[in-house]
Amino acid sequence: MKKLATVVLLGTAFAGQAGQSQDAHNYQYTEIGGKKLAYACEGEGKVTALLVAGMGLDAHTTYKNTLHNANPEGYRLCFYDRAGYGNSQYENPKVRTMVELRDELAGLVEHLKVESLVLVPHSFGGFVARAYASKYPDKVKGMVLIDTAHESWFDAMKSNMSKPGWDTMEMIINWEREHNSFEDFAEASSHSALYKIKDDLPVTVLSRGIPHVTIRQTKMSYADIDVYTQTWNDSQKKLAKLNNNTQAVTMKYASHLFDETDPWMALEHIEAMVNKAKL
User: Fold this and answer.
1) CATH number for the domain including 235?
2) Of 168, 201, 223, 256, which has the maximum CB count within 10 A?
3) pLDDT tens, 21-58?
4) Which InterPro entries does the record cross-reference, listed alphabetically (predicted)?
5) pTM recorded for the entire structure
6) Alpha carbon of 25 to those of 40, 111, 222, 236: distances in Å?
7) Residues near 37 by beta carbon (within 8 Å), at least 6 away in sequence
8) How many structural domains does the chain have?
């Protein structure tokens, strides 16, 4: 159930074995809020691009092929595991609010002594990144949102799916919150002011071009899968209007699992955003 729930909700589990192994990273550790957080960095520079994983998995699993193909020159590329994932430790885990997840990220950024920050979240990680950018607008110089969730998606699915379809989604969301990620998708989707960003902050929204339909494994009806897909696409249009400095790009050959098929597009836009942050 663990893998299926994670896959069908936000598609953060990977079947492929390409890319470097998790052991290849030079992990370092810091304590934030009584939790031991693992992180790793490559390259050097005043700009730090920080990868923020989606719900339910560690950063390596989310970005392994992106990291394998990265060659940071003139900037620092970092990633971290939120408490309870990967090499990070979280004793007696409990469900955490978006404010708690934001503050955990803030503690790591402070520890890393970041001068200029480019945030690169995937999926649920978009909530965490946007919440941080809202509270620390002077620190964040750009964001590359890789098929990230928008807060409108939750209610749109609930309003448009059949009762059996929404019952399936609710079961998955509740299971993730209580047994796997200890992160609350419904709570994260209940905010709007928490995610308000500067109007001139450079943002690139990368949206999947191939539907993510693993949810069919739950035997969800085709009509409800269509709702699942259409409401996600509609939410991406809202992300494209985050501010007056947002660029929207469709990843034509990538599904939600972008790292499996087209990590190079992500790297291209990360490096372009880093170059903007250097100006």
Assistant:
1) 3.40.50.1820
2) 256
3) 777 789 999 999 899 999 999 999 999 999 999 998 89
4) AB_hydrolase_1, AB_hydrolase_fold, Meta-cleavage_hydrolase
5) 0.93
6) 6, 19, 41, 32
7) 29, 30, 31, 80, 81, 82, 83, 88, 104, 107, 108
8) 1
